Amino acid sequence: MTAKPFYVTTAISYPNGAPHIGHAYEMIATDAIARWKRLEGREVFFLTGTDEHGIKMVQTAAREGVTPRELADRNSAEFKRLAGVLEISNDDFIRTTEPRHHAASQDIWKRMAASSNGDIFQSTYKGWYSVRDEAYFDEAELTEKDGKRFAPSGAEVEWVEEPTYFFRLSAYQQKLLDLYEANPDFIAPRERRNEIISFVKGGLQDLSISRTTFDWGIPVPGADGHVMYVWVDALTNYITGVGFPDDKSEAFRTFWPADLHVIGKDIIRFHTVYWPAFLMSAGLEVPHRVFAHGFLTVDGQKMSKSLGNVIDPFALVEEFGADPVRYFFLREVSFGQDGDYSNEKLINRSNADLANNFGNLAQRSLSMIQKNFGGVLPEAAPADVDLAILTLARETIGRMTVAMDQQLVHEATAEFVTLLNAANLYFAEQAPWGLKADLARMGTILTVTADVVRRAAIAALAFVPASAAKMLDALAVPEAERTIERAGAEGIGLVAGTQLPVPQPVFRKFEVPKA
Ligand code: ME8
């Protein structure tokens, strides 16, 4: 395959606490996109990690009586473990406290400072800062209550005044607008793009990019007492991960610019305004696309420690297994919109789509092959009705490919369910169990059904990788044939005469909790 390699990232999370389902969700959705591209035969590099500097880490560590490094070590390990239990296929896990990342951050800083328009200059910052958001705010963006001021996120802001370095962001207004204009797909979904364009049109102020009141950060080169503003170093992780500052390296030349940064909607400004401006200033290419997903609530309420409704993703996986949890988020939440988690919805989705629709169809057709053909895949002589379901399967794979290319993950999973509904209907109408006197016809129906299951299972490798692989094992599909190309090819991909193993149920059915 000669298609361009695909580089995709998640945001890197603050390890100031344990991961919650918002973090799990972002990993899962990005993983489905990465896996799909691999199934298409693309070379993929998928990066995730933790964002370990900044005042928020310092303050949380102080409250817990540990050092920032101890806090980062403890929680970063949990994010890494989460990627493991969710079967995330990331190729690297970056921690911003690593030496390679210090080198990259100092290098991009130097390039920005050396830019022809003198993009970095010294001055004094006076203004509002939100520690929780790690962000500066204008007076006009704040609300006031009981003498306190709050950022749009609801976090309280504090007044800071310190000598810092600034980045000449104001000089990038037109360049950014030109970038959005020339690349209509740079910001997704569409409504986010409009939001950012009007923000940039409103005028950009220079950005304070160093701090002098604490030292938990990456030292600014040649400026004692200054550490970088955490977002300068955080965004740089995306190039550290592919070998920067060695911009001649194989990894950098192969993968940069990134094809896709997947992030939450709260940090879109950093990714679509600051990040491309930093890169342009440093003379580096900008990423192709930033996709902002929505926020998750729990049973209709915002997740928060004070409400006590923060869902532990480890506990979820413990209870249901990784695949039902993954599937729920990919199917239930429209990618780009907010979504809601509830136990009952997860159970219903998993039971209806995975256990009943998908699992039963596989189990019923494969058990009949065992019982009536000794487990040897029968020859098929497809009639029109059989060709119709095979054609639908092929077309579904095509539509799923289009949807996944635009990160419409929920549309892809919806297509998958539509195909399974049709296949179940086909199976019920053809009623192979009543054809003991016509084994040739029965064999055709069973093989055609199994071939539709094969195609669906290949697609499902992106969503429920372990279960889909089990299903493909049950169909004796060789590893090399588990590709989107084979899933969408003409004809029947399964080979008559193949001895199939005795099928085992792949999906569990869960009990719906009583109201
Ligand atoms: O923002 N639902 O880290 P973070 C869905 N370190 N997504 C959510 C969520 C929720 N309830 N809560 C958080 C940071 N997220 C920075 C990123 S990138 C160079 C630096 C998402 O730990 C959030 O939108 O606060 C972000 O994409 C990711 O989780 C990490 O959030």
UniProtKB/TrEMBL annotation:
Motif 'KMSKS' region in this chain: 302-306
Single Gene Ontology MF annotation: ATP binding
Subcellular locations according to the entry: Cytoplasm
Residue span of motif 'HIGH' region: 13-23
Keyword tags: Aminoacyl-tRNA synthetase, ATP-binding, Cytoplasm, Ligase, Nucleotide-binding, Protein biosynthesis
Entry-linked InterPro entries: aa-tRNA-synth_I_CS, Anticodon_Met, Met-tRNA_synth, Met-tRNA_synth_2, Methionyl/Leucyl_tRNA_Synth, MetRS_core, Rossmann-like_a/b/a_fold, tRNAsynth_Ia_anticodon-bd
EC number: 6.1.1.10
Catalysed conversion reaction: tRNA(Met) + L-methionine + ATP = L-methionyl-tRNA(Met) + AMP + diphosphate
GO aspect biological process, one term: methionyl-tRNA aminoacylation
Domain Methionyl-tRNA synthetase anticodon-binding: 390-510
One Gene Ontology term, aspect cellular component: cytoplasm
UniProt enzyme class: ligase
Domain Methionyl/Leucyl tRNA synthetase: 6-365
Location (main, coarse): cytoplasm
Similarity annotation: Belongs to the class-I aminoacyl-tRNA synthetase family. MetG type 2B subfamily.
Quaternary structure note: Monomer.
Function: Is required not only for elongation of protein synthesis but also for the initiation of all mRNA translation through initiator tRNA(fMet) aminoacylation.
Name of the protein in its database record: Methionine--tRNA ligase
The species this protein was found in: Devosia enhydra
Lineage of producing organism: Bacteria, Pseudomonadati, Pseudomonadota, Alphaproteobacteria, Hyphomicrobiales
Gene designation per UniProt: metG
